[in-house]
Amino acid sequence: MNAAELSAQLSPWHLFLHADIIVKAIMVLLALASIASWGVVAEKLTRFRSLRKQADVWLRQLGNGRSLSALSASLHDRATDPFARIYSAVIGEWRETHRHHVDASSAGADGLKERINRVAGIATNIEISKLQRGLPVLATVGSVAPFVGLFGTVWGIMNAFQGIAASNNTSLSVVAPGIAEALFATALGLVAAIPAVIAYNRASGELNEYANSLGTLTGIVEVHLSRLIDTGEALVEAPESGSSQHGRPVAVAATGLASQGA
Q1: E-strand spans in the chain?
Q2: Which of 70, 80, 196, 247 is most buried (CB neighbours < 10 A)?
Q3: What angle do CA 121, 123, 126 make, to 5 degrees?
Q4: pLDDT of residue 139
């Protein structure tokens, strides 16, 4: 066998076609895992980048002393924005309290502040949980793929040695294809795992940054509402179409967030 023929036998496609059925299955599994992880990478990084930019817009608006009613208008029809849903849940509790004419004394005001704080926390946790979906795929591929590839390599080398023993020939033309098929599985495992690990770390960092932005935004809104509660000002108008939970109790409002944007 000349060098050209040997090189053709060592091409990735040729290695796949002539691999053992178990090794083929492992290669296909690793290829699908790689495709799935890249899909998650594209969706998450694009989504986080967009959300972070939008959060910066809300921070600038609130930092410029913009009123909550003006913020409500900006959040109108932004049902896919996590902060819009958190804001809607918080204002929903505010509206519900006023609708039931809850005690406006100091104790009642403190109770409203506490409920608003809890609603903001619950809604934020729900939104962060939604944004975490897909990240376990990257973590799983990054941690498991190398071992799956290694299993394919071990299996392939066992078959290669059996073939060498059966042929009673240890020439390079006999040994190289079988060993290359086995090592190709490990290579695919690393190709799937390395980008997944890098993307997981990047996406986790992006998510943490956005979670911090959400915490800042909800904290500013709570301060504004606390000031309005203490001064006894009128009800803040919330965007009617930004959420379907206006006028509902806080438990229902927060639960309703879990079913949105799934």
Answers
A1: none
A2: 196
A3: 110
A4: 93
